[in-house]
């Protein structure tokens, strides 16, 4: 798929479900529930045992190019530490790559294959380096408060920022208002469902996040 189109779809959908589970089957079910609730951008982290199996399964079921809303989703990979892992995930069907830190070799690999890559950054220096490497969206991780984006946008107004960690239903609107192009949601999306042993609860939580993002963008 065209890299620019993928990035645009991620930005349009705005909420990325960052999913971790005990195994590939559990995380795939988490993804199914997230998609059913309206979060259509899914990040399967490589900390999940057999994560590539989950990515392959989901990529085979969903498409980022379909006009069928029931089959539309963008499947990506997270917690990527090196280019070897990124390449394996891409071959399994991942359409974007996310890392906890900035690894130039991983960025180069993704750029070579025209796959969006979102490395984790914390400082102005890291963000500038990411931009110079050709990164389109940086992952602010760990995120602190929405005011951090304003501080970053001072010297680097051209940076596209996606905070991950610290984003909740109560502050997602504040992050968007501050200039975030998208947000990553982790345990706040899945914790209650896992605790109660009912993954179907994720769909309801996902619907709340999708609605909150839409409301924030409409302001």
From TrEMBL:
Quick one: which pathway? Carbohydrate acid metabolism
| Top EC category | lyase
Q: Which residues form a coiled coil?
A: none
InterPro entries per record: Aldlse_KDPG_KHG (IPR000887), Aldolase_TIM (IPR013785)
What Pfam family is a match, any one?
Answer: Aldolase
**Enzyme Commission number(s):** 4.1.2.14, 4.1.3.16
Arranged from A to Z, the UniProt key words for this protein are: Carbohydrate metabolism, Lyase
The UniProt family comment states:
Belongs to the KHG/KDPG aldolase family.
The entry describes its oligomerization and partners as: Homotrimer.
UniProt cross-references to NCBIfam families, sorted A to Z: eda (TIGR01182), PRK06552.1 (NF005119)
Name of this chain's protein:
Bifunctional 4-hydroxy-2-oxoglutarate aldolase/2-dehydro-3-deoxy-phosphogluconate aldolase
Source taxonomy lineage?
Answer: Bacteria, Bacillati, Bacillota, Bacilli, Bacillales
């Amino acid at each position: 798929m065209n890299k620019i189109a993928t990035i645009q779809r991620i930005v349009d959908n705005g909420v990325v479900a960052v999913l971790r589970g005990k195994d590939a089957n559990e995380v795939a079910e988490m993804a199914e529930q997230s998609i059913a609730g309206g979060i259509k951008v899914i990040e399967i982290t490589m900390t999940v045992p057999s994560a590539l199996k989950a990515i392959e399964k989901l990529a085979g079921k969903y498409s980022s190019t379909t006009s069928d809303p029931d089959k539309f989703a963008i499947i990506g990979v997270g917690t990527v530490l090196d280019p070897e892992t990124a390449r394996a995930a891409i071959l399994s069907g991942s359409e974007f790559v996310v890392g906890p830190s900035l690894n130039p070799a991983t960025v180069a690999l993704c750029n070579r294959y025209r796959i969006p890559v979102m490395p984790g950054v914390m400082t102005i220096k890291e963000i500038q380096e990411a931009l110079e490497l050709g990164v389109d969206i940086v992952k602010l991780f760990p995120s602190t408060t929405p005011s951090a984006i304003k501080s970053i946008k001072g010297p680097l107004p051209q940076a596209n920022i996606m905070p991950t960690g610290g984003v909740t239903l109560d502050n997602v609107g504040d992050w968007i208002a501050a200039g975030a192009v998208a947000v990553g949601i982790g345990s706040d999306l899945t914790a209650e469902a896992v605790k109660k042993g009912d993954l179907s609860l994720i769909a309801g939580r996902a619907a709340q996040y999708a609605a909150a993002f839409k409301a924030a963008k409409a302001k």
